[in-house]
Amino acid sequence: KRSHRVFCGRNAAADCAQRRPHKNKQSWMVSQGPQSQVEAQEPCGRFRLFRGSELVVVESSLCRLVEGGFYWGSLGVGEAHNLLRRRAVGTFLVRDSCQPDHLFTLSARGHEGPLSVRLAFTGGRFALEPALPFPCVVELLDYYAGLGPRAPVTFQSGVSLALASPLRKPGVPPLQALCRRNLVRTFGREGLESLPLSPRIRSYIERFPFKI
Fold first, then answer.
1. Residue 30 and residue 106: Cα distance in Å, rounded?
2. Following CA atoms 49, 53, 59, 63 in sequence, which dihedral angle do they give, to the nearest 10 degrees?
3. Mean of pLDDT over the chain
4. What's the whole-model pTM score?
5. Are residues 71 and 143 in the same domain?
6. Residue 140 half-sphere exposure, CB side, CA atoms within 13 Å?
7. Do 37 and 48 form a contact (C-beta atoms < 8 A)?
8. What confidence category does residue 146 fall into, taking pLDDT thresholds of 50, 70 and 90?
């Protein structure tokens, strides 16, 4: 079987893949306010070897995160919360997790302020809630952003989180990316199949067929 190490952080755009250490256990930790002791002391940059279908899932998710512009790499929890503090409720970003058993952390602006949640990765699927796994991080985010404030996720701590729109990294997005996003928002992913698009355009849309 093919095996590969995926490199995140600053090399993600080039490699479209990094991996962090990861154990197959589920943990939904919500972090608010100052950086937790664990995140402050655990060094980022550990690696896990992915193989087969698991490797495909991780590489695909990372490439789509980079394509979407809201993957902030090795950004720390304090930096992420500072970026989100003055943003609208529901604004979110994805960053590398410093925990040895998780790949990504979702940081978002909640009603009480910024918070961070580790995304579980088990059996080749990502999850914010144990009963609702997704084969791609961006698909997960697109689903919850589509629900909006109508169906927030409530964690065991009592903290609720609803997603709205991503916080993209600074820069002007390509015109074709804006057109792609508007097409998906207007027709939906399924509706695009009936449009008379060229194979090249259809392939470009499939690289990021999401509304966020």
1. 10
2. -170
3. 81
4. 0.77
5. yes
6. 27
7. no
8. very high
